[in-house]
Known about the structure:
- This protein has 3 domains: 1-39, no CATH class; 45-322, 3-Layer(aba) Sandwich (Rossmann fold), CATH 3.40.50; 340-408, 3-methyladenine DNA Glycosylase II, Chain A, domain 3 (Orthogonal Bundle).
- It has helices at 28-32, 45-49, 72-81, 90-111, 124-133, 147-163, 180-186, 202-214, 227-230, 252-263, 292-306, 314-322, 343-359, 374-382, 400-407; strands spanning 9-12, 16-19, 53-58, 86-88, 118-119, 170-176, 198-201, 246-250, 272-276.
- Helix 3 (72-81) links the parallel strand 3 (53-58) and strand 4 (86-88).
- The chain has 15 helices and 9 strands.
- The strands form 3 sheets. A 4-stranded parallel sheet has the order 4-3-6-7, with helices on both faces. Strands 5-9-8 form a 3-stranded parallel sheet, with helices on one face.
- By secondary structure, it is of the alpha/beta class.
- The protein is globular, with a radius of gyration of 24 Å.
- Helix 3 packs across helix 8, helix 4 crosses helix 6 and helix 4 (90-111) crosses helix 12 (314-322).
Amino acid sequence: MKACPTKAVRVHEGRVAQVIGVCVDCGECVRVCPRGAIRAITSDKGDMARAKYSVVSGSTVLYSQFGEEVTPNDILLGLKRMGFSYVHDQSYTNEMFNVAIELYIQENREKQHAPWPLISPVCPVVVRLIACRFPALLHHIPPLAAPREIVAREVKMRLSLKHGCDVSEIKALHITPCPAKMIEIREPFFQNHSYIDGAVGISDIYGSLKKSIEEVEEDKVLHHSGGIGLGWGMSGGEISGVQMNCLAVSGLQETINYLEKIEMGRLANIDYIEFRTCSEGCVGGLFTVADKYQAKRYLQQLVRMYGVEKRVKYEYVKKLYKNGWFFAEKNRYVEQITLPKNALSERIKRQKRVEEVLAQLPRKECGHCGSPDCATFAEDVVDGRASLGDCLYFRGKSTRSVSVKEKR
C-alpha cells in the first residue's frame, strides 16, 4: 500500500488489497508484498503459436540472463529455433534511436522550441507516472516512438509485403523484464494502437529458451549492433549513445525526486534524462532471472566486447528521421479538456473539505485505516470511500462534528 507511487492501493480489514486509483504498472506492489496478493499479468504464448507469421524481439536485458558464455547471437538463434517466423535484434534499433534523439535535441536547441530537459519516452512506467502525477511535464517527452514499437511496426510491414498477406496475420511478441509493457500494449499512451500483440516475461520463457540455445547448431548472424545498443538494459545505457549533456536516473523514488526537480525548473541546463523506475535499470525488472548486479556486469562485458561505437549508418538514419520514421502517432502535449463552469469551484470546495478532515487526523501515517497516509485517507473520507471511524484515533469517539463539516 505504501510502496505505490500513485497511492492507488487500499487494504481493507488488514488483509484485502484493492487497486482503486490510477495504476502505472510499476510493479512495486508485486515486488514488496510478502504474500503475493498482487501478481503481474503477461500474454498467453499460445496466441503467438496460432498466428500465420510470428515476430519476436526482446529487451536487451535478455542478453544478460544466460551468463558470459552465451552471446547475443546465440540467444537470437535460440529464439529462431523455437519456431518464430522472424527474430529481430532490438539492440540495433536502439542505436538508431540514439541518433534520432541526438537529431531531435540539435533541432530543438537551434529553434528553441522544446522545454528542457527532455525526458526519455522509453520506460512506459515513467510516461504514465508523469501523466498521473506530473502532467505539466508531458511536453518534455519527445514525440518519438520507443524502439520496441518501431521494431514491431517495421517488421510487420516488411513481412506483409514479402508474403503478400494482411498485417493482421502477423503477430509480434516482445520479451520483457517488466510488467509495464502489457498496459502499454493494451492502452498505448502515444499510439493509436500498439504494434506489439503480446508480451511475455523473461522468466516465463527462460527455461525453454535456455534449452533451445543449448540445441542450436545453426551459425547464422542475427545480431548486428555494437556495444551501445546492448547497454540499454542497464541504467545509463541509453544515454551512453547520446553525445549531449545527459543524466541517467534509476529507481522509483529517485525518479519521482528528479521529476519534482524538473517541475521546479532546476535542471533546465540538461538536454536529456534517461529515467528507469527499476533499480539499476531494466536489469532490475520483476521478470528477470539473473541477479541484477551480475546482469549489469554481463552487459558491461558485452559493451566492451562489441565496442563503444554505434554500428548504424548516420546518413541513413538521418534520412529516416527527416521522413518521420521515428515519430509517434499522437502528440505528447496534454489535450485541452473543456470542463463545466462549476468544475473549478467544486474542486475548491472538495479540497477545503479534505483539509478540514486532515486537520483533525493524528498524522501518524500508520495505515491502519486502509489508506497509505492521512492525506489520502482524508480524500477517501470526503469522497465517500471511507469514514472517520476507520481511523484508530477516532474509534469510539463521536464523528458528528466532522460529518457536519463534510456536508457544508
